[in-house]
Amino acid sequence: MTDLHRTLSWQTLMAEKQIAREENDTLTYQMSKDWFAIVTPLRGSCQIEGRDDSGRRRTTLMAGDICRIVPNNPVRLTRAPRERLPLEVAYIQMPAEILRHARDAQPTTTVRDLSTLHTLRAFEPHVASIMTEMLHARTTGAGDHYAASAARYLAAYLLHPRHRASPSAGGLSPEQLLAVTTYMEENLASNITLDQLAKEASISRYHFLRRFSTSTGKTPMRYLTELRIDAARHLLAVDSETISQVGRRCGFPNAENFARVFRRHVGCSPSQYRQRGQRG
């Protein structure tokens, strides 16, 4: 066991809920050298401002979205327009050394420079769920072994090359796939059609359907449905909105259809899923 793994504890990690109660309050994050952080909204949405590959910009974080923060790249969070509830986020900060260990243990990862992990917004409901679990564990007295194990898993997951495989022959280009999936993630509540997705890829509907399926192994609508279910699972776990409201936010305007699709993918109803999370 390395010195790092021996010293990982709740004293060397930070897992906390941070709140901006007033409308004009802001949460500002700037990592010092050798630290890395992740932020995800716990309820509602928020505005985030900072710099990424596209330059300086502002975007919106919603449930299931995360922001990854590296040194020398500050970000600022504010309450989203028309959001009436206080801004609440889960904040995880860890030593960058644990990411370097994870990188060195995964020879297939394409992340060599950890600064490339920085992003203002990424749809990562699994990471968001891990963060809320870490927050719960911290506040309920989980020991340092939990902290170390969770941090190692989170680092390994972030560096796993699941989204970085070479494009399949006959599939979409990486730029096309990114444009399409980003459009899906930013418009989950809308009635997204194949024609709209094909337009994002700048190809015909016929060729889009075939190429997207080649790239992902799934039809566009199945991929979209899985994104919606992932977002719904996260909302059910961390938010107090009614189940029908969660369904609408995730693109299921009909409550019965939401329950039916959720059960088919998860194995239980939305209400049962929420109750299990509350008992846990």
How would a crystallographer describe the biggest sheet? 5 strands, antiparallel
CATH class of the largest domain, named: Mainly Beta
Gap from first CA to last CA:
31 Å
Number of strand elements? 9
Tell me, briefly, the overall form. Answer: globular
Please outline the helices and strands:
Blueprint: H1 3-7, E1 14-20, E2 26-29, E3 35-41, E4 46-52, E5 55-61, E6 65-69, E7 75-79, E8 87-95, H2 96-105, E9 119-123, H3 125-139, H4 144-159, H5 174-186, H6 194-201, H7 205-216, H8 220-238, H9 243-249, H10 255-266, H11 270-279
Report what the structure shows.
The chain has 280 residues and is an alpha+beta fold. The chain has two domains: 3-163, Jelly Rolls, CATH 2.60.120; 174-279, Homeodomain-like (Arc Repressor Mutant, subunit A, Orthogonal Bundle). The chain contains eleven helices and nine strands. The chain has a five-stranded antiparallel beta sheet with strand order 1-8-3-6-9. A four-stranded antiparallel beta sheet has the order 2-7-4-5, with no helix packed on it. The model has no long low-confidence stretch (mean pLDDT 84). One of its GO terms (molecular function) is DNA-binding transcription factor activity. This is HTH araC/xylS-type domain-containing protein. Residues 178-276 form the HTH araC/xylS-type domain.
